[in-house]
């Protein structure tokens, strides 16, 4: 369904510095209808790799296939059309504050050139029903909780009936109870609609709750992969120090190679500040995604 072959993304160097190889020769096959988790510390290249899938960030090398189409061979109108099969949600929700919930969801249909108003209305109702927000259609984002906003964002992504849903840290701005609700909706969407889900996170709890397969990233590379069910096995031992650290929730075990104790813990930044930064970053990308 999704196939990444030797995908690399290098950002130009700041003055006097080396170019940043954010994604380094990643090959990954994601089966249709599965949920793929991508985990790693901040700066590992997770978001860039996710944005490589819909070419929001065009890879500097390698090939991306989605549902049999090589996206890396497309540009312009053909790429825009292919992207309608790929929905995306972000940490900062990216709702337009002066539009109602229904109008926010309708946006993606307008960009997808669903020209008939009655059809758009039907699809908005269908998408809002999936996330149980039909009764909130006429309210504004400011009147919603964080979890409800993310559910509207999910509805907006689903309105074009995509085959793939890309999720960039979708629950990082939410408390644990709301996180569980949003993850449940993503699981339902995957099961009921057969949508392939790719979720980037730095929380193994999110992976445990939702994913079928896990890819661990470090320094732009996928350093380890395993089925998420392995995480429930008591004797499961990730191969890499970073995998060990993430799977163990911070418990460090020296297994002979590079000591896990050498792995730096992720930087803790204030959640509100992180959310604000993510929202600013995400909003740059909204028009491209829904377009
Ligand atoms: N547009 C850009 N221009 C220059 N460098 C970038 C750009 N986007 C990302 N990078 C750099 O690429 C590397 C990978 O970034 P990326 O955001 O993909 O990592 P991440 O694992 O998603 O981190 P986080 O969890 O903090 O979002 C980082 O060093 C980052 O600073």
Quickly describe the structure.
The chain is an alpha/beta fold and 291 residues long. It is built from nine helices and ten strands.
Q: Layout of helices and strands, plus pairs?
A:
Layout: E1 2-11, E2 20-30, E3 35-39, H1 46-53, E4 61-66, E5 69-70, H2 76-83, E6 86-90, H3 101-111, H4 117-130, H5 146-158, E7 164-168, H6 176-193, E8 196-201, H7 204-210, E9 213-218, E10 221-227, H8 241-247, H9 271-290
Parallel strand pairs: 3-8, 3-9, 6-7, 7-8
Antiparallel strand pairs: 1-2, 1-4, 4-5, 9-10
Helix pairs in contact: 3-4, 3-5, 4-5, 5-6
The chain binds adenosine-5'-triphosphate.
Please provide a written account of the structure.
- The chain has 291 residues and is of the alpha/beta class.
- It has nine helices and ten strands.
- The protein has helices at 46-53, 76-83, 101-111, 117-130, 146-158, 176-193, 204-210, 241-247, 271-290, and strands spanning 2-11, 20-30, 35-39, 61-66, 69-70, 86-90, 164-168, 196-201, 213-218, 221-227.
- The chain has a six-stranded mixed beta sheet, sandwiched between helices. Strands 2-1-4-5 form a four-stranded antiparallel beta sheet, covered by helices on one side.
- Helix 3 (101-111) packs parallel to helix 5 (146-158) and helix 4 (117-130) packs across helix 5.
- The protein is globular.
- Bound molecules: adenosine-5'-triphosphate.
- Adenosine-5'-triphosphate (ATP) binds at residues 11, 20, 22, 40, 42-48, 202.
- It comes from Nesterenkonia halobia.
